[in-house]
UniProtKB/TrEMBL annotation:
Metal-binding keyword on record: no
Name of the featured protein: Glycosyl transferase GT2 family
Keywords from the UniProt entry: Transferase
Top-rank taxon: Archaea
Taxonomic path: Archaea, Methanobacteriati, Methanobacteriota, Methanomada group, Methanobacteria
PANTHER family: GLYCOSYLTRANSFERASE, UDP-GLCNAC:BETAGAL BETA-1,3-N-ACETYLGLUCOSAMINYLTRANSFERASE-LIKE PROTEIN 1
InterPro entries recorded: Glyco_trans_2-like (IPR001173), Nucleotide-diphossugar_trans (IPR029044)
Keyword flag Nucleus: no
A single GO molecular function term of this UniProt record: hexosyltransferase activity
The organism of origin for this protein: Methanobrevibacter millerae
Domain Glycosyltransferase 2-like, chain residue ranges per copy: 7-138
Length: 348
């Protein structure tokens, strides 16, 4: 019999002060801290304060484990897999180290799981900027659903794969050998997609916001949403290929565009917004083009008017043409931003 109701698994790396706020949000959960197991898996932090806190939590609470990996991996998948193997609970959730949960998060998630005997329960979340806190909007517009097969509601492919607002039955993950990709990105995307297809009961609570996702964009403290270097974008492509491999092996390619289109738009937008040199952009588009091509054959321009000029070079494997058009889009967006800024000034 499991010792706890929920295990929260948290990869850490030089987390510093963020860990205090995160841990406080776990301690004061309405489900009761005694019903929660916290497993920190540290990726070789070299920050003394982070290590101090991890040892402090581990030594001060019987329901907290701090595990220290021998080598730095640089990605969260390994730590999450390690934590899953150690979890002593009925349900598990995977969090980031620099965000927080609302006080009722685990109670709502757990009760929904028990009530429906669900393999997975998903909630909505807040984006927290320095100046405001906003609710994420989805195509569900506040509608809650319970499904037994993803074919019943493929709108779930359009919600954010962010793993921290999703509760999983531990036995479901173990029995289906569902694990995070390691040493690459899109690891949460992969985990979410595989779980959606394997789940015999998925609950989605669009009207409940369980998590505060803090968006930071200052030098030395950037949320992953603002990281746009070659390594980051390349590691996302590696993860995309693993998802494609799963779809092929599982005879699920009919869902390819439903699953990928939104993510390809995000990836291309990130590439456009990046400041990396054209030589690196060329490497990235050449590595991703086989994936992009399959999508634009179904949705030219990824169903985004501003990206229509990318369709022809993608289909023709014209990598230099893709980079050229990407740079043109960036310039066009810059002009629009400049003009809208001047218009705002004149109205004032």
């Amino acid at each position: 019999m499991a010792k706890y109701k929920v295990s929260v698994i948290v990869p850490t790396y030089n987390s510093g002060l963020f860990l205090n706020a995160f841990f406080d949000s776990i301690m004061y959960q309405s489900i009761g801290f005694e019903n929660i197991e916290v497993i920190f898996v540290d990726d070789c932090s070299d920050d003394e304060y982070t290590l101090y806190l991890l040892h402090l939590f581990n030594d001060g609470f019987s329901n907290v484990k701090s595990i220290f990996l021998d080598e730095n991996d640089g990605f969260p998948g390994k730590g999450r897999n390690f934590g899953l193997n150690l979890a002593d609970s009925d349900y598990v959730i995977f969090s980031d180290h620099d965000d927080t949960y609302v006080p009722q998060a685990f109670e709502v998630l757990y009760n929904a799981a028990i009530e429906n005997d669900a393999d997975m329960v998903i909630t909505n979340y807040y984006k927290v900027f320095p100046e405001e806190k906003v609710k994420v909007e989805t195509v569900f517009r506040g509608e809650n659903i319970v499904i037994n097969d993803i074919a019943e509601d493929t709108r779930l492919f359009t919600i954010d794969p962010a793993i921290w607002c999703k509760l999983f039955k531990k036995d479901f993950l173990i029995e289906n050998d569902i694990r995070f990709l390691e040493s690459m990105l899109a690891e949460d995307f992969y985990f979410f997609i595989v779980s959606l297809f394997k789940s015999s009961c998925t609950v989605y609570l669009d009207d409940f916001y369980s998590y505060n996702y803090f968006i930071r964009n200052v030098e030395g403290d950037k949320s992953t949403i603002h990281i746009r270097n070659k390594k980051y974008l390349g590691k996302m492509v590696e993860g995309y290929y693993k998802i494609e491999e799963f779809l092929i092996d599982s005879n699920l390619c009919r869902y390819y565009t439903d699953i990928f289109n939104m993510h390809f738009v995000y990836w291309i937008t990130s590439l456009i917004m990046s400041d990396i040199p054209d030589s690196e952009k060329l490497e990235l588009v050449s590595s991703a083009n086989e994936l992009l091509k399959k999508d634009v054959k179904v949705l030219p321009g990824f169903n985004e008017r501003i990206y229509n000029n990318l369709t022809k070079p993608i289909l023709e494997d014209d990598y230099e043409g893709i980079v050229k058009n990407i740079n043109n889009i960036k310039r066009y967006r810059g002009i629009l931003k400049y003009l809208s800024g001047n218009l705002l000034k004149t109205r004032r």
